[in-house]
Each structure stands twice: as C-alpha cells, then as structure tokens.
Amino acid sequence: MKLLLLAAVGCLLIAAATAEVMFEEKFDDTWDKRWHKSSWKQSDGSAGGFTLTAGKWFGGDEAAAKGIQTGPDSKYHATWAEMKKAYTNKDKELVVQFQVKHEQDLDCGGGYIKLIPASSKSKMKDFGGETPYSIMFGPDICGYSTRKTHVILPYKDKNHLVKKDIKCETDQLSHVYTLRLMPNNTYEVYIDLKKVESGSLYDDFDMLPPKKIKDPKAQKPEDWDEREKIADPEDKKPAGWDDIPATIVDPDAKKPEDWSNEDDGEWEAPTIPNPEYKGEWKPKMIDNPAYKGIWVAPDIDNPEYKHDDKLYLIKDIKYIGFELWQVKSGSIFDNILVTDSIDAALKFGEDTWAKIKDEEKAAFDKVKEAEKAAAETKKAEEGSKDDEDDEYDTEDEDDKAKKDAPSATLEESADEDEKDEL
Ligand SMILES: *[C@@H]1O[C@H](CO)[C@@H](O)[C@H](O)[C@H]1NC(C)=O
C-alpha cells in the first residue's frame, strides 16, 4: 500500500517534472511589472482596472491569497501579460487553469480568461473585447439566465462556442477552472479539479461545416403526393340533400289579430332555422393511398466540407489577458497556469486552491455571520424608533437598485459579443 502510494506520488512528480509551464502567475507586489493595463475604453471613461488584494475573506497566508480584483462597478476591466515565448501545442496537450472568487456576488459580468496569439501584438496596447484571441475560457454570469462556463475556440476567423451548456459556480468563494485540449481533438473542462465536461471538438463545436447537406439542386417530383387525407371518391351526396332549405317559415307564428292588410301590407310569417338542415354536404375524408410523406431533398456530401485532423492545434499563443465587463465588480483572479500537462495543472491546484478553500469558507461564514448580527442589531434599533415607513423605504431602494442595474445592456452586449464571436 505504501509502495503503491509512493509509486503514485512518484508518477505525479515525474509528470509534473516533465511538464512544460508556459505561464504561471500567483500575483504578488510585483504583478504590475508583468501585467499591463490596457488603454481600451479609457478615452470615454468606462475603463476600470484591477487591484491586488486577498479580499474580505481568504484562506491561508494573506500575501499568498492575493489576486487581482476588478473595480469599480459597471466598467470594462482589461489587463494582459506576455508569455515567455510564443507557444504552439502541436502533438501536445494544452491546459489553461485559473482561480476566481466572485466576492461581490457577481450579478452580471464576465469571469473568463483569454489566450491571445502573437499576431495580435500590435493590438495589445488597447487589448479588449475586439482583440483577436486563441481561447476564451471561464465563467459568465448574468441574472439567472446566463450562468455558464464559456469555451470558445476561434477557427478560420470565426469564434465557436461549445454547444454544451457547462454550468459555472455562482457563489462568493474561490473556484478553479481548467480547460484541457488534447491532440486527439478532444477537450475536458474541470471545475475545482473535478472533470465536469468532456467531448470531441468535432461534435461539440461547429468549427467544420456539416459533412452532409440537403441537395440544393434536388426538386420535388411533380407526381409526389404530400396529401395525407383525401376526399373519399366512393362517398356520394345523398339524394335530396340540397332540397332541405336552411330556414323555414315559423309554424307557430300567427298573424296578429289587429293586423290590417290594407294598412300593414300582406302579413308574412317570420322564418326560423330549419332543424332538418344539415349544412353543406362534404365527402368523408380517407387516408390517401398515394401519400408519400412530406418530400425532403436527399443528403449529399457537402462540397464545403474539408476534414481537418488538427482542430485542437493553436499556433503561437503569446499573451494572456482578462477583458471583462461587470455590473457589480469585485471578482478576484489568482493562480493562473498554462501548461502541457493536466497532471501538473491539477497538482498546481492541489497546492494552491485545495489548501486554502476550507479556511476561506470558514472565513466567509464568519464574515456573513457578523454581517447578519450587525443587520439584526440595526433592525432592532430601528424597530425601537418605530415604524413601518422604514420598511417601505428599504423596499423602494431595492426596487430602484434593480431598475438602475444596466443588466439588459450587458445582456445585449454579451449577445453581440457572442454574435461577433460565433
Ligand atoms: C484522447 O486522449 C486522452 C489523453 O491521452 C485520452 O484520455 C482519451 O481517452 C482520448 N480520447 C479518444 C476519444 O481517443
């Protein structure tokens, strides 16, 4: 047992030892020497930024727990760093991992990371939403409708979002997101070091056009019968059917006694609907023996389709960055790793996030308990003052905050983003 354990640890160590680390960032006082503030959105005053902090609750050593936090609210936050060299994942895994804590209880905003190719070099000064990238990966939250983990892979100048819905974490604690791309054109997504999704790049993304399409030249044959039911040719209109009138003279009507033909004209009995009348005759409908179903064009090989056995391949990754719009800011990013080994990434996660998460949760619970106690004290004080007005006041404020939150704007811009990307 001990031997086995030793062997397992040995394997991990070897895997970790042979792994190539393209980028690693744990954030400390020197972070802004490596990370550049983008000038994106600065001219119109809508640019936010990042500050180094461990946040209101954290686990372990405060210095080690520090990451970079978005702020202020309702701004675009963009920063980027350069990797040691341009990296191409030919015949190798590519693993991107980072940790994020939405301390603010993110209502609407991005929490994803981007890898960016060397070819975007001239655009990095204003790195932002429009800068071409190689991978976009991580959580995106807006209300209850958008709570997903994006995996977007550009292919031939078009961005392709994974078709599977991968849920993301929405609480106020640190979580680790890991994307693994493999040379056999499969991918895996891990959250908190556990695999939550996996699949084929062919099946789960629309990078390649479909293999088969409906033949656009095919035409429905003239004699193709799409009528499921037809009138029964055997069915005949019963004799006398058309002789039954729709209305008849009311047999109960009587000429009023004081009716004067001279003054009032010839008396005519009123008519009423004929209870015998059966309406217009229609033949019975029967199954059409010539029915062939709804015609569909036959499938043919799509002339646009060209197989690519290297969908996973991403050339010359050179930069890494965040470009995020958030209504409520405060997300803290930390412990970024780009490597060619899932084992190395998971070990990195074990050594960082896994070691602090329980303590962080305990610290979070303590803060929340203190906040609850403070709120109760305040309520008790206000209660002693009197009255119901206070309650109405708070409700009004809540409503106002809801109305003011430009979440619709973000939904729109997120949709637009996606359209651009897709
Ligand atoms: C792809 O490669 C990974 C890692 O080597 C392996 O675990 C997985 O089973 C492979 N998948 C397929 C479909 O070949």
TrEMBL record:
Entry keyword Zinc: yes
Signal peptide (from-to): 1-19
GO terms, molecular function: calcium ion binding; carbohydrate binding; unfolded protein binding
Protein family: Belongs to the calreticulin family.
Disordered as annotated region, ranges: 211-280, 365-422
Function of the molecule: Molecular calcium-binding chaperone promoting folding, oligomeric assembly and quality control in the ER via the calreticulin/calnexin cycle. This lectin may interact transiently with almost all of the monoglucosylated glycoproteins that are synthesized in the ER.
Gene: crt2
Disulfide pattern: C108-C142
Cellular location(s): Endoplasmic reticulum lumen
Comp. bias (Acidic residues): 384-398, 412-422
An individual GO BP term: protein folding
Protein name per Swiss-Prot or TrEMBL: Calreticulin
Pfam family name, one: Calreticulin
Record InterPro entries: Calret/calnex (IPR001580), Calret/calnex_CS (IPR018124), Calreticulin (IPR009169), Calreticulin/calnexin_P_dom_sf (IPR009033), ConA-like_dom_sf (IPR013320)
Biased composition (Basic and acidic residues): 212-240, 365-383
CC annotations in GO: endoplasmic reticulum lumen; endoplasmic reticulum membrane
Keyword Secreted: no
Residues reported in the UniProt entry to bind an alpha-D-glucoside: Y112, K114, Y133, D140, E323
Keywords: Calcium, Chaperone, Disulfide bond, Endoplasmic reticulum, Lectin, Metal-binding, Repeat, Signal, Zinc
